[in-house]
Structure to design on (166 residues):
């Protein structure tokens, strides 16, 4: 009987000792994105997100990165606003990203946005002509919490044809 009581007390002490650790793990949260979406703002892509489960430490900072594959098509236009019959054209494709440091509120959430921009063009036009953006596209958009290693894809492709028929 004494062994049974001793075993019961030992088990109880183990659980009591583990309780603070379990509570501390709960305080760390379970980081995850509740939502992520994207919207074109001119030629930029604004990536909106909401992440939860970040714990209750308002002094903590979280690094979040929005990324995408961006593509742009540029062509040379003359001073009369026309494209020569044999215009110089260039397709530029690159991975783009934007990052920021965010602090979760006391509710353990971050609701914010990051803005992606197109890569620069290197198209050089002959004298009397100017490089203009004809079309662009963002694909494979995602948002990633680098601090906690969680990510969420943003479905869809985002872009526009600014000058048709080139």
């Amino acid at each position: 009987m004494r062994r049974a009581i001793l075993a019961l007390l030992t088990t109880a002490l183990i659980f009591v000792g583990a309780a603070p650790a379990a509570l501390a793990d709960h305080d760390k949260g379970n980081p995850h994105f509740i939502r992520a979406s994207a919207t074109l703002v001119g030629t930029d892509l604004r990536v909106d997100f909401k992440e939860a489960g970040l714990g209750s430490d308002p002094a903590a900072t979280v690094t979040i990165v929005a990324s995408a594959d961006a593509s742009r098509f540029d062509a040379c236009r003359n001073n009369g606003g026309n494209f020569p019959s044999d215009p110089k054209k260039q397709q530029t494709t690159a991975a783009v990203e934007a990052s920021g440091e965010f602090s979760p509120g006391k509710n353990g959430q971050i609701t914010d946005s990051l803005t992606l921009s197109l890569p620069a063009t290197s198209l050089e036009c002959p004298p009397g002509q100017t490089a203009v953006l004809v079309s662009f596209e963002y694909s494979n958009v995602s948002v990633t919490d680098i601090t906690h290693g969680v990510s969420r894809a943003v479905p869809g492709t985002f872009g526009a044809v600014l000058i048709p028929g080139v």
